C-alpha cells in the first residue's frame, strides 16, 4: 500500500446539499458510487435507518469502507469496482432497484496527497495516476504514445491549447530517457511554457488530461448516469458532484436530454424524430455551488458543482407548456 502523509483526510464537499438533494429517509436503499474517504456514506447512514451500497475502484478506499462496515454491519454493503460495473454488482446483490445514487467524481484528497500515487506535481513520485491498481499508468502513456495522440489527449481532456508544444517536448525528452516521475514531467512543461508566480502551474491541465485518460473518467461518468436512469425507482434521486467543466458538461447535457424541460416543443419539424419521454425532473437547472464559508474552510471545494434530479415513472410525459 502506498506511503501516506500524516494527518491525511478528505473533507466531503457540499455535504448538507448532497443530503438534501438525496432526500435521505428510513427504509431506503442508496448507492454511493464514489466512496473515497466515506464522508458521504457515513452521513447518509447517520441521517436515516437506510442501506448504503458503497463502491470504489481504489483498494485503499475499499479498505476504509471495510473499516466503516464494522460500525454498520447490517446497513453498509461494500463493493470494489468501477461504477460502470454497477449493473453487474447489482445483479450479485440482494437489491434490484434503488432510491438514490450519489457520485462525487474525481480524486479524493487521500489519492492526491499520497506522493506514491503520482497524481500531483506538488510532490515527487512515480508518474502513476491509477485510481485502481491495474491498467496503463500515466508513465506508460507519456513514454509510449505517439506525439499526435499525446497532443490530442492533452487538448481533449485538459483543454490545454498549448498541447502540441507539450507533446513535442515530451517526445524530445523521452528520446534521451523515459519520463518516470511527476516532477520530471512538471519541470519539463514548466521549462517549455514558463509560468507566472500568481498563475496556476503550467502542468495543471496536462496532469488533469493524463489522469482522465488513465482512468477513463469521462466514459465512466456517462455509464454511471445511465446506471442511475436504469436502476432508480420512480421518485428516486440522482445526485452528482463535479469538479471541472468537462465533468459538469457531461452531467448537464445528460440532464438536458433526459429531464423535463419547461419549454418543450409541442410540434415536430418535418423529418425530426420524436424525443423520448423524459426520465428525470432536474432539481437545480443551474447547479449548486459551495458557499463562501465552505470555500474558506475547504479551498478544494471551490470548483465543485452539485446537480440533482428526481427519477420520473417510466413513460411519464413531461413538459409544462406543450
Ligand atoms: C472525490 S472522492 C469521493 C469522496 C467521498 N464522497 C467522501 O465523502 O469521502 C472520489 C472517489 O471516487 C473514486 N472513483 C473515481 N472514479 C471511479 C469509478 N469510475 N468507479 C469507482 N470509483 C471511482 C475514487 O477512487 C475516489 O476514491
TrEMBL record:
Presence of the UniProt keyword ATP-binding in the record: no
Renumbered residue ranges of the record's region Disordered: 290-322
Family, similarity comment: Belongs to the methyltransferase superfamily. RsmH family.
Enzyme class, first EC level, given as a word: transferase
Protein name: Ribosomal RNA small subunit methyltransferase H
InterPro entries, alphabetized: RsmH, SAM-dep_MeTrfase_MraW_recog, SAM-dependent_MTases_sf
Gene name tied to this protein: rsmH
GO molecular function: rRNA (cytosine-N4-)-methyltransferase activity
Its EC number(s): 2.1.1.199
Amino acid at each position: 500500500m502506498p506511503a501516506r502523509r500524516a494527518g491525511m483526510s478528505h473533507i466531503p464537499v457540499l455535504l448538507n446539499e448532497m443530503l438534501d438533494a438525496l432526500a435521505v429517509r428510513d427504509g431506503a436503499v442508496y448507492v454511493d458510487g464514489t466512496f473515497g474517504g466515506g464522508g458521504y456514506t457515513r452521513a447518509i447512514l447517520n441521517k436515516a435507518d437506510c442501506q448504503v451500497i458503497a463502491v470504489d475502484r481504489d483498494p485503499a478506499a475499499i479498505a476504509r469502507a471495510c473499516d466503516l462496515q464494522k460500525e454498520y454491519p447490517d446497513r453498509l454493503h461494500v463493493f470494489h469496482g468501477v461504477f460502470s460495473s454497477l449493473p453487474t454488482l447489482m445483479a450479485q446483490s440482494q437489491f434490484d432497484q434503488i432510491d438514490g445514487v450519489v457520485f462525487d467524481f474525481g480524486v479524493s484528497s487521500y489519492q492526491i496527497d499520497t506522493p506514491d500515487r503520482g497524481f500531483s506535481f506538488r510532490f515527487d513520485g512515480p508518474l502513476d495516476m491509477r485510481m485502481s491498481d491495474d491498467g496503463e499508468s500515466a508513465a506508460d502513456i507519456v513514454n509510449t504514445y505517439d506525439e499526435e495522440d499525446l497532443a490530442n489527449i492533452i487538448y481533449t481532456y485538459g483543454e490545454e491549447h498549448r498541447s502540441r508544444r507539450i507533446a513535442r517536448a515530451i517526445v524530445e525528452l523521452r528520446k534521451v530517457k523515459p519520463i518516470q516521475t511527476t516532477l520530471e514531467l512538471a519541470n519539463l512543461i514548466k521549462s517549455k511554457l514558463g509560468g507566472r508566480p500568481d498563475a496556476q502551474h503550467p502542468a495543471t491541465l496536462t496532469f488533469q488530461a493524463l489522469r482522465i485518460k488513465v482512468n477513463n473518467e469521462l466514459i465512466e461518468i456517462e455509464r454511471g448516469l445511465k446506471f442511475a436512469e436504469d436502476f432508480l425507482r420512480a421518485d428516486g434521486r440522482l445526485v452528482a458532484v463535479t469538479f471541472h467543466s468537462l465533468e459538469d458538461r457531461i452531467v448537464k447535457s445528460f440532464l438536458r436530454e433526459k429531464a423535463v424541460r419547461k419549454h418543450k416543443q409541442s410540434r415536430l419539424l418535418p423529418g425530426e424524430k420524436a424525443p423520448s419521454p423524459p426520465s428525470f425532473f432536474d432539481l437545480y437547472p443551474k447547479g449548486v455551488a459551495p458557499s463562501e464559508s465552505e470555500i474558506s474552510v475547504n479551498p478544494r471545494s471551490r470548483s465543485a458543482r452539485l446537480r440533482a434530479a428526481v427519477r420520473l415513472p417510466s413513460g411519464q410525459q413531461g413538459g409544462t407548456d406543450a
